[in-house]
Structures are given as structure tokens and as C-alpha cells.
């Protein structure tokens, strides 16, 4: 026994020494890396170079130069035009910096004379009401022979101006025109005068003009192919697979599919009509099966900083112009779950709402016929959103009772616009972790929701997925339930067979006939079976252990010649 | 120990149950009402307000229960916010004088909670006030009546607003010969500009600016001579003998352009000299229109040609004939203890003075050449040999003497 204790002590000492050594190594590496970092990125280095931050490329591309005034004394050199572009954008950015921070020290780099004085005089009042740039159109009116005086007009400056509305910072989506004098001083182009010559705008919450075509009643499903979902859908677009899938959708009695149109895959700002051939092919196939298509725009475009809006409008203008006349297209969905993008690069809820409004108006400018909606990620998000589109869409993963409780507020928000469930349903994933559902529960959930949809006269409902998918969405976490739920939302199993929900989803299905899970149904899941088994086994082990301990104690009390010290002490105390 | 197991197991089961309940209700959140503005307020203000005038904004449709009315004035350069309590249906907010620079179109927004209204008005700039900002460039032009410079005036009113387009700007141009002219232009795109063509008289031209009685700092530019006309070279000094030391000055005519304007000081001129001793290029600059070069007389008699180039214009050639500096001198050969001594001199120039110290006498004995630097006109050379050498030729400044041999 003594040797054993000694061995344990030695092992503990060794472990302690190893721990101390490992801590020392980690501390050394940490300190060394910090020192190296200080050497390479010292404050002094930053002060010396004081490099101006790079302008967002999207914003630089949002500047469009019109042909120079032919009466301008001098033709502008390409490099000077780049300098002017840079100075113009940075000057506007300074306004936002002053509004955000109150720091006016950067103004003199981009403004001079009266403009500088005016900006400095107004800096205090401006604070808290920033102006964001969206895009600029510029034209040279006068460029002096010696290249130091420039008069430039900006027929279209698109801005997002902040305004305090209620308790929040609202936004005004403005299109203004300007005339400016810029002077080349000390190698920098500075704004000398800055005159607004016109201004138009609308509030970020202003609705779009209603579509000429009234939105229909939809019963459909969100669509991805089973083996190539999410980012693999369009790169792996296979007309034969899609044709078969759409045939299954039609056979289920559904009339609509909702598909994403990714921003980056279709070349963003530079999208041309030819790039959209796969989408047109999809629409053709849907039309052949008598299905309507809800096109969800801006898939994967989650950063809604204003510097990106011009690219967004360029993209959506091409997409809408190319697809708007297709007979299969029944609705534009501006984005799936834009409320989930709040916080990305600091965007606020109202800024995201402003983006939605900006894009919706851009879509309406091209297509006045097709209804517009926004696929909010929840009923709560839809209720808090401004009344921008023709239809109020939202996803709902909760119960029918929860949805029913939210409907009054939703109706108050929507007014006379129809409500639509852009995605609903629960998964049939039933793993060893809690939160799983059976296929029967999935069908019952669908039946409850669709009964409510019918009873309340909602404008449409789209199931979460046609198929159980081979892959989770790209933003799903790695944990089993984060993978399991999104890959088991389908109406059809991955092997092609139909789940019970397939009999529920079609219009006219007998929803009352769907068996609802009883009070104990929740226990009929893998997790609870394992949990109950564990409890039973644990109880057996516990009881057995206790029995053994009791027998051992009885044997010790019956005549052990060498009782333990504890036992002796107990005996003495007794 | 067993007493602890049961409560822990129970707690774990409760936790799991809570997890299950929570996961089954996920997706539910509290909804809040939408935020959307309603355009129920109405703003009354004039369409045009003079710069420096008072601005008063009247807001109608105010709700007495909606809290203060905030009126935001966006001048284009910044924000001015004023708020007033909603005592009735109408609220009037004064902004005082518009006494700072402002963009031409100003925006007014009235906000009471989510009730809003927006309006715009134009600001009428006042008369120009000095000093007007003027920019002139380029600052130097050729006085040939074809080149030009440009002056740009950016006039403002007393509050820093650009004056209205169409405002008269008067530029008065005073030439170097004090001739004067006045040109009127009108402002367009916030500025008035004028191309000022050069005259034909070089010198400083001054430009004064007047905008509606408001002055500006004078701006000036230089009118300078164009390319020079053809010119000639001359020798300032008499041509010296070819002694390799005496300096001679070569000068250009006064360089003038086609309009008789003297080339500005510092105009670069190059002089190419070609003679019996080789070719050389010398760089110089003009002063008062003349470029002067100093060259050394060649070390051998003969003709030398000089030609200058100014701004691409070449002068006529100047040919100078340098006479011999030495016509005769003595050469002696004597046997000495160390060998054979050759003595040269005294060598006198045509001016009867010793040739300059350091002048080299070249002694040629057969194929062997020796050099002697003369001091006070004399120099010697000792050949370490017992035999009297053959014919000896000595050359000094192009003149040769021979002893021995055929002599």
C-alpha cells in the first residue's frame, strides 16, 4: 500500500512538472509572438505612413462618369479622373465620419475655403445623422487649362440620409444632384464649393407601387435538388434531374416552387442576360409542369453596406429585366431572411430595411407587373418590417398556435396585403440528441399549419423542402443537430419515397384525418428511449452497488482481525 | 456518495427535459410593431430664401399628443436641428439668419414621432464680395500672340455662397508695355474664366478681376520670347597666337525672337569648337540676351570654327585663324658625364616673351619621343648613352627645329 501511494505521488509530481513546463512554453511563445507583432506593427509605423484606408471596390465602381462637356477647356487625363473619383468619394465619406465621430480633422484634406468653413461650423449639429453613399454620376463641365480648377456636376448622387424617426434612426433614400468646384491644392483635389441643385427622395419604409398582377394563392415548396442543394444547385444544374423533381412537385398537387438566385454565382454587378440561361431553363421546365416560380434574389448576399447597393441594383436590374416576362414567374422575393443579416459589418435593422426598400423599388422600376415580397425569417421579423412589398412573407418553424397568436399583429402590419408562409415545417430528424421529431410529427405539424392557413385565408404556404437533402446549408454548424434538422426537412426521403407529410401538403388534403401525436408522443423518440434506458440501467447499478456495500459492511462487522483505522476510531467514539 | 447520485441524476433529467421543451418551441419570438413613417405633417416655407435672410418653418398637422416637433434643416454642408413643443395643430420653428455657406437647395424635414414631412427650398445667393478667389495658370507663356494662359474666378457672396450663374466678371489685362484691355465674362458652373492670349512684347502681364464691384488679388504671368531668330558669333578679344594658354572670348549676338523680344536670362546656348587640336562643346546661358564663352587658344597654329545652338536655332559659323606662337628657338646637344644632354631654348613667343611655363617641347629621336616641360622658356633632357644621337626634331607649339642628320 505504501509503495502504491509513493508511485501515485511520483506520478502526480511528474504531471505537475509537465504542466509547469507546458505553461512556461506557452507563455514564452505568447510573449515572443507579441513582441514580434509589436516590432512589425508598432504605432510609430502607422503614424509614419498614415495610409488612407482603401475605398471599397464596390463603391469605386458605383461612380459613373458621363461624357465630358465638350466646351470644357481641357480634356481630363485618365489618372486625374481617378484622382477626382477618389477625392469625391472620400469627401462624402468625411461627412459620414463627422456625423459618426464628430472628428473634423480629416475635413481639411478634402475641403477648402467656404466648404470647409461651412462643414466645420455645422459639425456639432450633424453628429448622429450620417449620410451614406450609394452611387454617383459625375460629369466634367470645366477643367482649366493648367489643370488646377475643376467644375463638376453630379446629376445623380444616390445617398442614404439618416433622420431621427420615433425612437430610432430612420433613413431617407435620396437622389440628389450637385454642382461643385474642386481645386488642386498641394497635390490634393479639394472641394471648394458644393452645391445641391436638386433633391428627391423617399423614406426607407415607403411601400412600392402595387404590382399590376394580384398575387395568387400559392401552395408550394422550397426547392433544391436532393444531391446538389444550396451552393451546388446552379453550378450542378441538371435539367433532367430538375425535370424529374418538378414532376414530383406537380404530382404532389403543389403549384409553386421557390428557388434562390445567388448573387455571386451569377456575377453580381456584372450579370448579363446570358448568364441567367440556367434560370430561364428552370422556369421553362416549371412552366412545362404547370408550376409557378417564386424567385428569391440575393441568395448569399448578406452584407448590406450602402457601398454595395449600387452593385446590387445593377445585378437585380439585369435579373429582373431578363426574367420578368417569363410566364412561370409568379413573384419576386427580394431576399430570404434579410433580418438575419442585421449586424453584418455593423448594419442596423433599419439599414437592412432600407436596403430591402431600395431593392424593392429598383425591382418595381423594371417590372411593374410581378408581385414583390420579402421572405422574412420569422413572423416577428415580418411584423417589425416596413410595408414595402405586395405580399408579407415569413418563415415559421413554430407551432400553429404560436402562428395564430402572431397573426393579429401581422395583419395590422400587412394591412390589405396577403400573408404568405415562405417556409414552414419541422424536420423529421430524430437523433440521440434532444429536439428531434418523427415523420408523423412532421406530418401533424404540417396539417396544423395548413389548417390555420386555410382557416385564416393566408395567401400561400410553401413547405420547407421537397427533399431530404444530402448536405446542410453552408452556414449550418458542425454539431449533429445542426446538420440533422436542415437535411431532413423534406416531403420526400432521400431515397425517393414519400414521407407521411406528402399526403398532407396538397391543397384539399383531408387535414383532420392526419393523426396528431398524443401527450406521450414526445417520449417516442430516440433521445428519450436512450434517456429512459440510461435511467433504468443507472437505477439497477445503483441498487446493486448499494446491496454489495451493505453486505461488505455486514461481513466487516462480523470479525475482521485487522479493522481499518477509521473503523477503530469509530468504535472508540461510539 | 449514493445520496448525491440521485439528486444529480434528477437534475440532469430536468435539464434535458428543459432542452427538449426549448428546442420544440424554438422559432417563437416576441413580435414588435413595424416602424414606418406616415406623411401626415405639412411644411410651409417659401420657395426661395435670400442668403442671410431669416428662415422660418411652419409645420401643420401636428398632433398635440405626439411630443415635440423636430425640424431638421439640411444645408448640404451640415445639419441644423430645432425642436418645438406641439402646443396646437401648427408649430413654427425659426432658424434665424442663413449666415453660413449653404448648398443651393436646402432640405427641411419635420418629424413628430413617426409622422414626417419634408420639403425643399432654394437659397438665393447675395452679391459678390471681395476678395474673390482667382486662379491663373500657366504662369509663363510665349509672347507670340498665339499662346495663352487662363484665369478663373470663383466669386462668392458675403456668406460664402457661390454667386448666381450669369454674374458679370470683368478681367483687366495690363501688358508689359502698359497697354491695357478689359474683357467681360459671365459666371457659369460657379466660375468665370478667360483665356488670355499673349501679346508680342515680353514681360510681366498683370490681370485684375472685378466681380460686380468686388475685387480680387492681382494675378500675373510672364510673357517670354519665342525661339530666337538666326544669330551670329563674334570674337570679343583679338585672336591670340596658338600658345595653348591665352584665353579668348566668343559671344553671341543679342538673342531675340521674331518680335524683337530678348531671350530671357538663362536661356541655354551650346558652343561647338572645331580646330586643329580637336573638337569641344561648351555650355553657357544668356545674360541680357547674350551668351559668352571663354575658350583657350589652341596649342598649334591653324584655323578653328565655332558654332552656337540656342533652343534648336544654330548660329552662323565663326572661323578664327590662330597664328603660330613660336617662330624659332635654339636646340643644343652636348656630351656630359652622364651621357648626352639635349637643351631646348630659350623659347620665346611672337610677343618676345618666354612661352608659358609648362609648355611642352616634344623631342623626337628616330622612333623615340621624349617630352620636356619648359621653365622660363628652357628645358633639357639627358640621354644615358655614350654615342651621339642621330637626327633630333624638337616641336614647341607647332614650330619644329631639327639638328644633326640632314641638318
Describe this structure in words.
The complex is a heterodimer of chains A (574) and B (407). Chain A has 574 residues and is α/β, with parallel strands linked by helices. Chain A is built from 16 helices and 15 strands. Chain A has helices at residues 2-40, 43-49, 57-61, 78-101, 107-110, 113-126, 239-251, 277-288, 309-323, 349-366, 379-384, 400-414, 439-456, 480-484, 526-557, 565-573; strands at 63-65, 131-143, 149-165, 168-185, 188-203, 218-222, 256-262, 292-299, 329-336, 372-376, 391-396, 419-424, 460-463, 465-467, 490-492. In chain A, the strands form three sheets. In chain A, strands 6-7-8-9-10-11-12-13 form an eight-stranded parallel barrel, surrounded by five helices. A five-stranded mixed sheet of chain A has the order 1-2-3-4-5. In chain B, 6% of the residues lie in helices and 48% in strands. Mean pLDDT of chain B is 88; it is low at 18-31. Chain B is mainly beta. Chain B has one helix at 2-24; strands at residues 42-44, 48-50, 54-60, 69-74, 79-84, 90-97, 105-112, 115-124, 133-137, 140-142, 148-154, 168-174, 180-186, 192-197, 203-211, 214-215, 219-224, 233-235, 247-252, 268-275, 278-287, 290-296, 302-310, 313-314, 318-322, 329-336, 339-347, 360-365, 368-373, 379-383, 392-396, 399-403. The chains are: A alpha/beta (574), B mainly beta (407). The interface between A and B is large, with 81 and 69 residues.
Notable traits:
heterodimer, A: 574 residues, alpha/beta, 16 helices, B: mainly beta, six-stranded mixed sheet, 1 helix, 6% helix
Mean pLDDT of chain B: 88
Shape of chain A: globular
Query: How many helix segments of chain B?
Result: 1
The unreliable regions of chain A are 36-46, 560-574
Radius of gyration computed on alpha carbons of chain A? 33 Å
> Uncertain runs of chain B with pLDDT below 50, 5 residues or more?
18-31
First-residue to last-residue Cα separation of chain B = 142 Å
Question: What is the oligomeric state here?
Answer: heterodimer
Overall outline of chain B: rod-shaped
Would you tell me the structural class of the helices and strands of chain B?
Answer: mainly beta
Biggest β-sheet description of chain B: 8 strands, antiparallel
